[in-house]
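Work Package 4 report. The design task specified in the project plan requires that, given a folded chain encoded as structure tokens, an amino acid be chosen for each position. We show below one input record used in the internal validation round.
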């Protein structure tokens, strides 16, 4: 018999098992949630975006992006509304993500290779228009940026490029080029990425790795040795001077007397020359380094002949060549660079170097056929012969070399003496023209044949002195015998 409580309207609660008690707690925990049926779940799955096709490698996430779990970590590649862009971004980084070389996916708004190239070229164009960058250098920069975009792709993020990419890019750059060309390409590439960091386009500097470096000096020296000599011999220079025209003869003498190049002769003005005292004061066009050089009597005579020629004086000069010492028959400068654009919009440079053409034609006519030697070979000749004096400071001063930043001697040096400059030019003149200079400096270096003659004469005089002294001692010994004590 079940006992009842008279003071309560409730009936006694029946005993329940432990499993029933657990189910009741779960039901109470879910209380307040709306019940969803099978139809609601199906409708929810129908409204959620899925893969564009079955073999699509990415999975749509509930945050609205395509994702993929790689090496235990979920990576996101773009919005679900644009599957092609997400797939392209995945293919750009999948190799590095699966191998563990990349632990994040760069942002979609990160700096791309095309953006970096455009910004770098825009800055270079401003420098070109301001006159601080040569037009030819700008064209070379454009070609280097084209190589970057061709290899990495225009949409590749700069931050995603690592040392392995630069190793492959170096192999791409060195195809069918000399080590000197590879050196320039690597240098410009590093400058482009440094520009991105300096302009705060990327938060951290790109790491190139140990392999993406310029070729070693040993490799460059071997390459130069395989190319043959780059200078003209004294006999070859004398062979060119005889049949050369007035202007070309004066330019050849300036090239071997002062180490002038093609651009130097084309830009030379009469105001830079002091014919009465025999000096030329002309900053180097390439570096802007100030320089001065004593002129040979033959160089002065050749310049005076150019100034006195009536046919050259009758030439109607162009405005850009009004103050130039040398002009072509049509009144232009001998070396001109005209910026232009191709049909595809790419910048190019139309160069007119009449000096190079004239010297090559003259060399071929005289039977001097050297592939790598032209008018600039005269500058190499001056450096080669001038170094024989041992006065490299004077040689560099005449050549207009820009000293390295580590050269503390150039910082403290107040100038180069006139005697040192004449010592170099007189030695080069004696070697090329075969006649000694009229003005001899105190420390003039003699040629090898002169040194041998002097040494032979000194040796003969010493031998004669020793013989005469020995003969004198013999006569005195015969006349006067030593006394015995």
């Amino acid at each position: 018999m079940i006992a009842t409580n008279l003071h309560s309207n409730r009936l006694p609660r029946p005993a329940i098992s432990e499993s029933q008690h657990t189910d009741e707690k779960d039901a109470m925990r879910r209380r307040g949630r709306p019940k969803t049926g099978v139809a609601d779940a199906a409708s929810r799955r129908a409204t959620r975006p899925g893969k564009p096709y079955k073999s699509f490698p990415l999975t749509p996430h509930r945050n609205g992006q395509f994702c993929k779990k790689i090496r235990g970590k979920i990576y996101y590649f773009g919005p679900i509304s644009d599957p092609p862009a997400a797939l392209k971004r995945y293919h750009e980084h999948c190799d590095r993500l699966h191998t563990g070389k990349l632990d994040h996916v760069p942002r979609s708004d990160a700096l791309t290779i095309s953006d970096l190239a455009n910004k770098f070229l825009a800055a270079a164009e401003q420098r070109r228009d301001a006159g601080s960058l040569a037009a030819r250098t700008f064209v070379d920069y454009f070609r280097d940026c084209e190589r970057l975009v061709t290899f990495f792709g225009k949409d590749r993020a700069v931050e995603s490029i690592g040392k392995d990419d630069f190793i492959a890019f170096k192999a791409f750059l060195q195809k069918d080029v000399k080590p000197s060309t590879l050196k320039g390409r690597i240098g410009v590439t590093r400058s482009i990425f440094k520009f991105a960091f300096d302009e705060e386009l990327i938060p951290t500097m790109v790491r190139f790795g140990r392999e993406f470096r310029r070729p070693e000096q040993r490799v460059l020296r071997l390459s130069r040795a395989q190319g043959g000599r780059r200078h003209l011999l004294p006999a070859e220079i004398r062979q060119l001077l005889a049949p050369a025209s007035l202007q070309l003869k004066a330019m050849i003498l300036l090239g071997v007397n002062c180490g002038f190049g093609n651009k130097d002769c084309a830009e030379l003005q009469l105001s830079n020359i002091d014919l009465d005292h025999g000096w030329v004061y002309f900053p180097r066009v390439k570096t802007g380094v100030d320089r001065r050089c004593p002129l040979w009597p033959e160089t002065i005579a050749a310049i005076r002949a150019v100034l006195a020629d009536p046919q050259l004086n009758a030439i109607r000069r162009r405005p850009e060549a009004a103050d130039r010492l040398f002009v072509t028959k049509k009144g232009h400068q001998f070396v001109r660079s005209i910026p232009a654009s191709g049909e595809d919009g790419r910048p190019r440079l139309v160069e007119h170097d009449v000096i190079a053409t004239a010297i090559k034609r003259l060399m071929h006519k005289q039977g001097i056929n050297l592939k790598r030697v032209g008018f600039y070979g005269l500058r190499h000749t001056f450096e080669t012969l001038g170094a024989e004096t041992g006065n490299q400071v004077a040689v560099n001063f005449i050549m207009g070399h820009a000293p390295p930043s580590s050269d503390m001697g150039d910082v403290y040096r107040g100038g180069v003496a006139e005697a040192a400059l004449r010592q170099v030019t007189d030695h080069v003149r004696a070697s090329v023209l075969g006649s000694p200079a009229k003005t001899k400096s105190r420390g003039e270096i003699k040629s090898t044949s002169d040194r041998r003659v002097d040494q032979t004469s000194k040796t003969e005089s010493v031998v004669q002195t020793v013989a005469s002294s020995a003969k004198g001692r013999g006569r005195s010994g015969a006349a006067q015998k030593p006394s015995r004590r």
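Confidence is low (pLDDT under 50) at residues 1-11, 439-453, 473-485. Validation will be extended to a larger panel in the next phase.
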